[in-house]
Amino acid sequence: MAAEVSKESGQSISALQTGSLSEMYADFGLKIQSLKSVANFATSVALQISEDLCQFHKCVPITEKEDGTVVLAMADPLNMVAVQIIRKKINREIEAVWADEDDVEFAIGTIFSDKNAFEDTLQDLVEVEEELDEEEEYDEDSVDILRTQATDAPAVVFVNSLLVQAIQERASDIHIEPMENNLRIRFRIDGVLREFPPANRRLQAGVIARIKILADLDIAERRIPQDGRVKFKIMGRSVDVRCSTIPGIYGEKIVLRVLDQGSISLNIDDLGFEEEKLSMLKEKAKAANGMILVTGPTGSGKTTTLYSILTYVNNPRLNIITVEDPVEYRLDGINQVQARPGVGLTFASALRSILRQDPDIVMVGEIRDFETAEIAIKAALTGHLVLSTLHTNNAVATIVRLLNMGIDKFLIVSSVSVIVAQRLVRRICSNCRAPTEPSDDVRIYMERVGVDVTEHTYYKGQGCSQCSGSGYWGRFGIHEILFMDAIIKELIIEDGSEAQIRAAAERVGTQSIFMEGVIRARKGLTTLEEIIRVA
């Protein structure tokens, strides 16, 4: 996936060739290496990489440093996909330097004999686990051409490379976006989109057709959005990939949601709850009835929290059934139902049927309407533990949302046990963490909301190779937990305002998401900028 566009200048490399490639790569902090002065290359490392991999990405290992880092001469040192693949191949850190392409090819020729191993290498890394039916035929000549392009080596290699790099970079989503002059590639890493070197526009048709065939989508249909799913085994790990397409002015944009179960911990103790609140949450999860609601925006980890609670309570003596749209992860010992509104299997209709299946615990993926909310609450009142999610900003607002849906306040106070509001914030990279002073903008914002930032030491990541210069590595949850006690129930019955309910909750220890985030920042786990952005 050679970089055709400089992120900073927006100019094409072909245009820059009349100037100085050396100056361009120097702007990226890349060294220039003349291979004519190299007497002995790192032959053992080169053989480990393979000749075709070096030829494909126009690279050759020069030397090995004392710390084990391999210096890799590349015709295009901005090709991060190549760097990541080779790093995984040899399990070593890579330092990329620029060298003339002719020199690189000559060096490769002095080391290797002809082989054709690159496609086999990626095939070993990425395998489609579920064979899909590709026999459907169309009359359009263009569709036949697309099918041919989808099986050509460049498209196959490109898609496999994206999947491998997504796993290595811990990406949750891959965005493939046709632009006027190139194919834009972005990964969502730790909740933030990060741009990678774009691909050649000529790859667009083949790549999109390849992905649509894998996800069992109609490659002849390019006018309407489509959704599909495919299961891969990537580097020995089972990964579900959800595919969504939508037509744009330059072609179909594709988003691949990467569901890597191996990277997700479903241990309730790893969710980041304070010890006392975690103990109370576990107690409520072990109750015979009641309702536990988890709230927050899309991508805030609500489903992971519910799965962790289900994993905690799961045992052979309990009948646990879920209805979800979609089913994101498969849980052993739990009956999971996929909602299908197109055929009438909505959350509400599925929930009615589930209640006739003698359940002990029921999870409803999301409460979206009055009907679902009413059935779920009545289930919680009749001897079932019910878990679900809502899209609200905080725990107290969830009560107001249920009232606005038309749920009777007496049903709310009788059924709801716990409301957990949460966000995911990025964790400071431990490899480059350093003390810092809050900026003037942060200081002014914090003063405005009544937080003193002068009495504590704060930290930020300086940016390193581990975190790809972002200063962050991974995410964790910050929570607001509202346990329904007698005072709060009385306020609900008496039509208390949201402000009154919040004040009562704070008096008994409920802490806002924002303040919990500030406390985590004071402990050096995240930054104040991240708390302001998320909470």
- Coarse structural class: alpha/beta
Strand count, sense and closure of the main sheet?
Answer: 7 strands, antiparallel
Strand proportion, as a percent range, falls in 15-25%
User: What would you call the shape?
Assistant: globular
Strand order of the largest sheet: 4-8-9-10-5-6-7
Summarize the structure.
It is built from 21 helices and 19 strands.
Describe the structure.
The protein is of the alpha/beta class and 535 residues long. The chain has helices at 13-16, 21-27, 43-49, 51-57, 80-90, 101-111, 118-125, 141-151, 153-168, 204-214, 275-285, 302-313, 347-354, 370-381, 395-405, 409-415, 440-448, 486-493, 498-507, 513-522, 528-534, and strands at residues 59-64, 70-74, 94-98, 126-128, 171-178, 182-189, 192-200, 226-234, 237-248, 251-260, 290-295, 320-324, 335-338, 361-364, 385-390, 416-428, 433-436, 458-461, 472-483. The strands form four sheets. The protein has a seven-stranded antiparallel beta sheet. Strand 14, helix 14 and strand 15 (385-390) form a beta-alpha-beta unit. The longest helix has 16 residues, at 153-168. The protein is globular.
